[in-house]
Amino acid sequence: MSLLRPIASAALLLALGSTLATSPAAADGSCSSNTATASSASYSKKSARSAAASGDIVHVAANAGTFQTLLAAAKAAGLVEALSGEGPLTVFAPTDDAFAKLPKGTVEGLLEPQNRAKLAKILKFHVVAGLVTSDKLGSIAALRTLEGSPLTVDLTSGVRVQKANVIKADIAASNGVIHVIDSVLLPETSATAIRN
After folding, report:
1. Are the CB atoms for 168 and 180 separated by under 8 Å?
2. Do 8 and 80 form a contact (C-beta atoms < 8 A)?
3. How is the chain split into domains, by residue range?
4. What's the whole-model pTM score?
5. Are 89 and 175 in contact (CB under 8 A)?
6. Which has more pLDDT, 121 or 39?
7. CATH number of 21-195
8. N or C terminus of the chain with fewer C-beta within 10 Å?
């Protein structure tokens, strides 16, 4: 993990990346009949104004200082530009400590150029189109991620998405919101590949 820390935030913010490729269902946050829609319409002008001073998702994450691995991964996957785009987006952001829980060598392997598509798939599993603040999570059984798979929400003991705990919610950005989580979320196919 120490190899990732020297990456300068300024370089991450200037990095050019490809835009997120989403399916029509993912683009509007739509979900199956057991899920709710995270509508961009809920992104009010008031929210945009109050968050504008914070900067976009990438700036907010860089300024927090606890998402260096996530930002390095976004750069390697070519997603920095998309995460800095208009949005709104909801990002479930794993901390550096969350990435450190992965098996030794996993992060370094995912950052290799030949694993760019796999890394992008994992990162898109952390992003939902639309603004989903914590007050809306209680009415949502699952969210449709930009990766295409549903992300389950469980409120029985705190707030959990998949098997990760939300440890800080509703960090405002000019183009969406960040919820901090304590584990990296893995789509089933990626989880299998990492275990093998």
Report:
1. yes
2. no
3. 21-195
4. 0.73
5. yes
6. 121
7. 2.30.180.10
8. C
